[in-house]
UniProtKB/TrEMBL annotation:
It comes from Streptomyces calidiresistens. Residues 1-79 are annotated as: Disordered. Residues 154-364 form the DUF7847 domain. Keywords: Membrane, Transmembrane, Transmembrane helix. This is DUF7847 domain-containing protein. Pfam families: DUF7847 (PF25231).
Amino acid sequence: MSDRWTSPGSSDPGDDPHGRGSDGGPNLHKNPAPPPGGQAPPPTGWSAGAPAGQPGAGGWGAGPGAPGGSGWGGPRWAPKPGVIPLRPLGVGEILDGAVSTARAHWRTVLGISLGVAVFIQLISLFALRFWFGDGSALTALEENPNPTEEEVLDAVADLFALGSVTGLATLVGSVIATAMLTVVVARAVLGREISIAEAWAESRGRLLRLLGLILLTGLIVGAAMLVPLLIGGLTQFVPLVILGAIAGVILAVWLWVRFCLAAPALMLERQGVFTSLGRSWKLVGGSWWRVFGIQLLILILVLVVSGIIEFPLTFLAEFVSNGGTNMFVGSEMTWTYLLITGAGAVISSTITLPISAGVTALLYMDQRMRREALDLELTRAAGFDTPNDPGAAGPGHPGY
């Protein structure tokens, strides 16, 4: 990306002495030389502002845990070149920013989310039809009231293969959607247009690292859930097993929230996997409950929207398919059933993917505005004056 979101104290490995970035474009981390007269132009970089614990220029940047208001009885005025005002955000503003991104850049967002949803559902559709079709081990198991051990093992192997294929398709699609939509949101914050081709060009170099990040995060969270459960299970004492399961779930949720901002950190700061995990850990620290509440709210919203869309279509598919299906459906899982339910999944994913990805990206930006005065850098990058710039308006004044 030409707009770098570097973290405080970090250096851009792509910088060269001539002021060019690693992509050959202008280095946005080095302020240009001031013109005659001593008045420097506003910087255009996306680097982070003041380190945590220090106020930003003119006191616009909130410190760790500081509220977004300016002490004037409400949120201070801030420029809004794109989908959000450039200041620490409220919950409603984060959600509105995600929806506004989808509206303002609907061609790009729709193309990405619809393309990913169709990709996932096509693979899932053919996998389901193959492993639940006539002649499959699952069909044979359904039709045989007294299956042999070999038939049961074959059916289990088919279920594992089906889950692996659909899970891999979902993982790949999620990585692509997260990467590209995060880039789109970053541009939308400054009111800049971006095409699907540009979003792909800016994100494709980070896809493998993002895949590694998601896998590593899943491994850490999964291990955190299983270890207490296994320890409790070794005692063979039911209360301890239950206690271990509860402790595992709590620990897994806590770690997931601490790492939930790692993906946008990796994409926008161009950090490595472990550095991105550390960045998320730092940004969420002290704001765990707030981040957890917002992510839980979005999860509930996504589930509700998905249910509203998919449930009627699933009912219709079962009605059209003369009784529908069950766990082992065999030949009853017809193409009609698969196509109707697949269409519902595509529609719901097309709507919910931009919302979930957008909220996570904006939550990352909000935490950086609160801790690192990122709002000052974004204000300058958008071409607005900050309080330290000559002629800038003070907090709470619109400046025009």
